[in-house]
Write a structure and sequence with these properties.
With 200 residues, the protein is mainly alpha-helical. It has eight helices and no strands. The two termini are 27 Å apart.
Length: 200
């Protein structure tokens, strides 16, 4: 779904990228650097302020991740090293977002679901990487790819900002993360099945 939306917004990204003559790899690294403070801040003190700070940093980190590719294409700096760095940094950001959610949620069941969700997200990414190394294309295969997953997590933190400290906070986090864990693992399974059929 996001691949189609990204195609529509590509002209906007290209316009922004024209004015950014920085090395796209620096933007990629910046996406990780911006995602490091949220779990630290959350560990030190969980509050609406720390949740709001995490939301702002994760959104900015995601924007860096979107823009780096456009900058690389506009300025002719697309490279295999950049592609590798981008996908590797994405995994770090994924983990940092999940760790932040883990610290925020003090419910044991929710924390278990976060771990299951993290496994599903990594299996989704690994299945694509391994499939492409074997010549099978998996772009667009599965219920939710990384872009959708990041958006859903940011929405999760936004809702948590408003519900934190209320009686339904734990119920909400358990249900939301449970659904996300289910969707990520279904996506991983869809990709595994697709690759097995393609490489038969």
């Amino acid at each position: 779904m996001l691949e189609r939306l990204r195609a529509k917004f590509e002209p906007v990204l290209r316009s922004i990228a024209k004015y950014l003559s920085v090395n796209p790899n620096l933007l990629t690294l910046l996406s990780v650097i911006l995602a490091i403070p949220p779990p630290v801040i959350m560990y030190l003190h969980v509050s609406r302020l720390s949740i709001a700070t995490a939301i702002a940093l994760f959104i900015t980190s995601s924007l860096m991740d979107i823009i780096d590719g456009a900058v690389a294409r506009i300025h002719g700096r697309v490279s295999k090293r950049g592609a590798f760095l981008d996908s590797t940094c994405d995994r770090y950001v994924d983990a940092l977002m999940m760790i932040t959610a883990f610290i925020l949620c003090n419910d044991t069941m929710t924390r278990l679901l976060i771990i299951i969700c993290l496994v599903g997200s990594y299996m989704t990414s690994y299945a694509r990487a391994r499939a492409e190394s074997l010549g099978a294309e998996l772009r667009g295969i599965g219920l939710i790819e990384r872009g959708e997953r990041v958006i859903l997590l940011i929405i999760f933190f936004i809702i948590c900002y408003f519900l934190y400290g209320t009686n339904i906070f734990n119920i909400f986090t358990r249900v939301y993360i449970g659904i996300l864990a289910l969707l990520t693992n279904i996506t991983a399974i869809q990709r595994i099945v697709k690759v097995c059929r393609t490489l038969r």
